[in-house]
Specification:
Blueprint: E1 2-4, E2 6-8, E3 26-34, H1 36-42, H2 47-54, E4 59-65, E5 68-74, E6 78-85, E7 89-93, E8 99-107, E9 110-115, E10 119-125, E11 128-135, E12 138-146
Parallel strand pairs: 1-6
Antiparallel strand pairs: 2-7, 3-4, 3-12, 4-5, 5-6, 7-8, 8-9, 9-10, 10-11, 11-12
């Protein structure tokens, strides 16, 4: 089992953010993914990761305490845990060791993650949690149901 963690740094927040009042907390099971392989290739994931990820749909547990979040993504082969605070730069290390920085913010009930290679928008649509991730001209869409 691989454990992936990220560390938050308190760098940003010159502007005021309100505490997110969102319905993301809980456990979600991914049931649909569009353009996953193309997205992973666009962000430079190794072929081993692309192959592994194509074959598994993760369960995602989200815990929110005010402006602080913990995301846990589980597959049969690995568990990835990342923690962040809204509006603060976060250092992330991927399962294959690549590192990057991102900032997550809340806007109109959506969680928006911005990094050099991609932008992610996570939102609740009806009973689904939908994540739309864009890298260049590639858009990846993941849909999950609460379990």
């Amino acid at each position: 089992m691989v454990r992936w963690e990220q560390n938050s740094r308190t760098t940003d927040t010159s502007r005021q953010h309100r505490t997110a009042d969102m319905e993301f907390s809980g456990t979600w099971k991914v049931y649909s993914e569009e353009n996953l392989e193309q997205f992973l290739e666009a962000v430079g994931a190794p072929q081993m990761v692309v192959k592994m990820r194509k074959e598994m749909k993760p369960a995602i547990t989200i815990e929110q305490k005010g402006r602080d979040f913990t995301f846990t993504m589980k597959t049969p082969l690995c568990t990835k845990v990342h923690q962040f605070s809204l509006g603060k730069e976060t250092d992330i290390t991927t399962v294959d060791g690549r590192k990057f920085k991102c900032i997550v913010r809340e806007e109109n009930g959506k969680l928006i993650t911005e990094a050099d290679k991609f932008t992610s928008v996570r939102e609740i649509q009806g009973e689904d949690m939908v994540e739309t991730v864009t890298s260049g001209s590639v858009t990846f869409i993941s849909r999950s149901k609460r379990v």
